[in-house]
Here is the input.
Amino acid sequence: MKKITQIICVFLTVTSMNAQQEKGIIGYTNWLSNWSEFKPHKVEYGEPNQILAGNISVNTKLLKKNVYVLQGNVYVTNNAVLTIEPGTLIIGDFQTKGTLVITKGAQLIADGLETDPIVFTSNRSMKKAGDWGGIVLLGEAPINKFGNIGSYNLDLDPTLTTYGGENASSNSGILRFVRIEFAGKNIKGTNTFNGLTIAGVGSQTILENIMVSYCGGNSFAFYGGDVNATKFVSYKSINDDYKFTQGAQCRLYNSLAVRSSYLSSNKDGSRCLEVKSYENKNETDFTKKHTFVTADNITLLNDSENITADIQSGLVKEAVYIAENASLEMKRSVVSGFNPAVIIDEKTEINDANLKKIKFEEMFFNLCTANIVTDGNRNEEDLEHWYGNILFSNVHSKSDNKETFVDIFDSKRPDFRLRLGKITASSSNR
Here is the structure.
C-alpha cells in the first residue's frame, strides 16, 4: 500500500505525573473512575419495590431509597418532568420489554453524580444484551424528513413517539452520570431498540457522562436534532456504538467506543461511528441540513489481545462509515485495531468539495489494515494523497493495545487514555 504519511515521530515530554496525551480521550485523571462499570454481569443489584408502568402525565420524582422496575412501555407525557435522584436504580423488565419514552415536550432530569450514578439495568439473573428496551428521548429540534416530523415506532404507540420541529435549542432535560446496561431488545418483524435514542433533541439538553454497555442494538442513536455529547461511553454493544442520521447536528467530544471481536457484530452495518444523512431517501427533504458531526478527542478501539488474528479471521470490520451527503470532521482521535479505520460510501465522489466535508486531522491510526478508503476499494490513491498531506498531521502505528493505552485490561478500572511516550508513527507499508 502506498505511503499515507511521511515518517513522523511524536516525542512527548512528560512534565508531571498527570500530564496527558492530547489524542483520544483526555483528562488529567481517568474520568471513567467511580461512575462507570465494565463488569455489570457481576454486580448484585437490589430487588425492586416500586413499579413504573403506563403514562406519567404529571411531574414525578424517583427516589434513591426505592428500586424501580420498568414494566412495558412507560411514557412521560403532557410536558411532564420525570426527575430521578442520584444513585437511583431502575430495572428494565425482560418479560414486558421495559422501555422509557420521554415524549416531545416532556423532560427527563436524570442528573446523577460521579460517586452516585443513576443506573438502568436488566432484571434477569443471567443478564444479556437486549434484555429490555432502552431509553427514548424525543424532542422538538429539526430533522431532515419531509414535514420536519419523524416517528420512532417499533412496537410503541405511534401517537406518542413523534419527534422533530423548529426549535433547535429546545430542552429535553439532563442525562448526566447515567449507566444503561443490557438494553436493545429485538422486536421481531420490526427492528432493535437502541440503548439511548436521541431523536429531534435540542441543544439546551445536557448529555454528559453516559455509558451504554452490552446493548443488543446501537448504543447511541441520533435522529436529527442539534446536540452536544460529552464523555459518552459505548462498551461492547452488538450494533453501532454511535449512529447519526436524519440531519443530526452533533458535537461529540472526549468519548469512547470499545468493541469486542467476539461480542460486537462483524456484519456490514455495524461500526463504531455510522454517519448517514437519511434512512429513507424518498422521505428526505434535501433542502434541510444534512447530517454533520464533529468528533474531537474520540477513542475507538477493539479490545482484542490478538487483533491481527481476529482481523485475519474476519471478526473485525471498519470503525467509521460515512454515507453519501453526510459530513464528519474528526480531530485528535485514536482508531485502533480495525479493518480498515474508515470507509467512505462508494456513492461519494472523491473530489475537493466532498473531501472538504470529510475531515481527519491529527489522527492516530493504530493496527488498522488501512486508514481511509472508499467502500470496495482498499487502494484509493486519491484518498491517500489527500489525507496523507503533512498539514493534516495524521499518523499511524502498529503497537499492540498494552503498549498503546495506559491500561485497558484492568477489569475494575480500565484506563483507555493514550500511553505517554510510546507513540512512534511510521509510514512504512502494512
